[in-house]
Design goal:
Elements lengths: L1 E3 L34 H10 L2 E3 L7 H13 L5 H16 L10 E5 L3 H15 L5 E5 L6 H13 L3 E3 L5 H5 L7 E5 L11 H12 L3 E4 L21
Parallel strand pairs: 3-4, 3-6, 4-5, 6-7
Antiparallel strand pairs: 1-2
Helix pairs in contact: 3-4, 4-5
């Protein structure tokens, strides 16, 4: 469900939990606990008229890296195997939404494991007959697993462009006729707002009419609660 917040209404924003449409309205004398509202959410709603998606929380972002580390240290699963499995599962869930082999798929690939996951998804799409693919690389510091995945897609000769070194003409044409934009820029490890060059990329992606798929979570979406005016990927 998606709810557009354009004013403060206790039946829309209630203790940071959105009340579904059609639900009975809240009595005037509702409990004190229900009056509590996150200032960040309120500011974001008023200033940006943002769209919030209701999602089921599976795990805290702070726990993700610990789970990943234990999978490798305790279960002895290599990092590349985890990345391969993640990319395959994402593609299998996503492929039913794709229109056809002519769909233009643009993958935004950061230098971390989030970007590596996106490259795995791109490779499975390529193997499934999708040839109209463009990889957009960002960042110069690559995780070991991401570096391996980049070498694999290079062997496949899938077209790519480096965002940081691209000229303005190439940048503005990235999402022309794009059917899907796959967000693999950053994941749960982001500690602050996106750097300026990535903000430009994300804003451009948000303005595109293409559908969007986020690997892990939409890039920088968690920063909207800490920095209400920050840029994040809208998916």
């Amino acid at each position: 469900m998606t709810v557009s917040l354009r004013w403060y209404d206790p039946d829309q924003v209630n203790g940071c939990n959105l009340r579904p449409r059609g639900h009975p309205r809240t009595p005037l004398a509702y409990r004190d606990a229900e009056k509590k509202l996150s200032i960040c959410v309120l500011l974001t709603a008023v200033v940006r008229s943002c769209t919030v998606r209701i999602m089921k929380r599976l795990v805290r972002s702070s726990e993700v890296s610990d789970i990943d580390a234990k999978a490798q240290s305790v279960a002895k699963i290599p990092a590349l195997c985890l990345m391969e499995s993640a990319g395959l599962q994402i593609y299998q869930k996503w492929k039913s939404q794709l229109g056809g082999a002519t769909d233009r798929l643009v993958f935004l690939c950061g230098g971390g494991n989030n970007g590596g996951d996106a490259l795995v998804v791109a490779r499975y799409a390529y193997n499934d007959g999708f040839r109209n693919i463009l990889l957009v690389y960002t960042g110069t510091r690559l995780s070991p697993s991401c570096e391996v995945q980049r070498s694999i897609v290079d062997a496949y000769k899938i077209p790519w462009i480096d965002w940081d070194s691209a000229n303005e003409t190439d940048r503005h044409s990235l999402f022309e006729n794009a059917s899907w934009i796959v967000d693999g820029l950053v994941g749960t490890g982001l500690k602050g707002p996106l750097k300026e060059s990535l903000q430009v990329l994300v804003e451009q992606a948000n303005q595109s009419p293409a559908k969007r798929l986020a690997i892990d979570i939409p890039s920088a979406v968690g920063m909207m609660f800490l920095f209400p005016l920050s840029i994040y990927m809208q998916t």
